[in-house]
Write a structure and sequence with these properties.
Length: about 550
Amino acid sequence: MKYSPLQKARYEYNPKLPEMLRNGIADIGVKEGSETQSVADQDAIKALFPNTYGKKEIIFQKGQNTSNAKKQIVGVILSGGQAPGGHNVVCGLYDALKATSKENELYGFKNGPSGLIEDDYLVFDDSYINEFRNTGGFDIIGSGRTKLESEEHFAVAAEVCKKHGITAIVIIGGDDSNTNAAVLAEYFAANETGVQVIGCPKTIDGDLKNEDIEISFGFDTATKTYSELVGNIERDANSAKKYWHFIKVMGRSASHVALECALETQPNICLISEEVAEKKMSLSQIADYIADSVEKRAAKGMNFGVAIIPEGVVEFVPEFSMLINEINELLAGNKASTFGALATWDEKYTFIKTGLTSEAFGVFEILPTGIQQQLFLERDPHGNVQVSLIESEKLFSSLVAAKLAERKAKGTYNGKFNALHHFFGYEGRCAFPSNFDSDYCYSLGYNAFMLIQYGYTGYLSKVSNLSKPATEWVAGGMPITKMMNVERRHGEDKPVIKKALVELEGKPFKFFEANRDLWAVETCFLYPGAIQYYGPTEVCDIVTRTLALEQE
């Protein structure tokens, strides 16, 4: 097989580890902290997790390894969407496992949690795993979105583990996947299976984050990839000087990606969903906000610009959220098939008008036809609108165009507005991981095995002090239940890891807020360029602006 020069060079990259993990397995000791409690709903979470709740946080430090020596057969699962660095979590886990004993084994369950249920796996060896070091993607074993949440699933998982003599399962995933990890750990503990469960924090969206998890892996690489593309578009816009570029970026539930890209590139406009919700902004107000920038720049002879739009922003607009809720009710049950049987859009439009309240239809009516139709595309498994299918970048450019046409008719605006549209999503999920993500993920995997070796279960692999050089990082673990609360999901109260939204009082947003009025009118573009893997540390190992501002 032929490899590109970069691919060959990345295979040979030696990820950096925290100093205490470099001491050698025999010299890694453990220090326990205080007992923990969940972030909210303590009584409810404690009742649901009687065997794994309230455990102590731990850190690893130089000292004698006091763990019980035994053969470890570990299973690993990649769960959910891809994120750069996932392969290195597996590699770090494998290397730590083999460094402890060559007799230890690592099973990779294929295509996500379903691989555990279906007993579909491979056993890693050196030659296979070496093909995936420091590379992007999840193709080492594949991923999937099956959830382990029923008693039947748990029982089958326990039988599969028993069949292979598996002592621990490592689940690499986001908030939902690690919630499943906590539930599985509790089941295994309650039923005395002897199988431990450890989670690793993954998501490019950045919403698996709290006082313990400074950043989820993949966020660094994904935002640097998107920022390079945004910077390229800014350079093009500043060259052609005739287009406004509306760029939608990943972030269904939170705007961490959009904010980081804005900090990296300084676009004219960046919407932050959490602020939209806080201020209860309407579609019209958002359109006016963007149109103001277009008008002021046009007055300076600059009929071009760049606007970053978070993927899920429309769900944070109160009136749009109301509309979506009414559409979900409108098509509930058998009514969806009735709607689907209508032959023309005109017939469907009449059905919609009859079924919505006047307030909701008033919102629906101002939407471009294409966006109206997107609201009635394929439903999600629960019969709801798939908001991710809505082209919000086209929605806002269309609304802005309408606002500008009104202003032109009144004589207050005399510029030109030509919009182009982009969506950056999959481009960032499988990129070669940055040095930061390569190091961080390898450390997470190595650290996960140390948690296993010391007998912990229901824990998340935790590496902190991440704004410092890797040698100063601190490795340890925290009980997953510490991050949990109870939320209403599909009509039931469920224990879930609390999503981290952009903090409007946090340093990253405050920096953005202090500068965005200038960026909106002037051309202050930054061009971060491609991810650098080789060269000065300040170039190659630089952390995200978000992390740097939070830790300063």
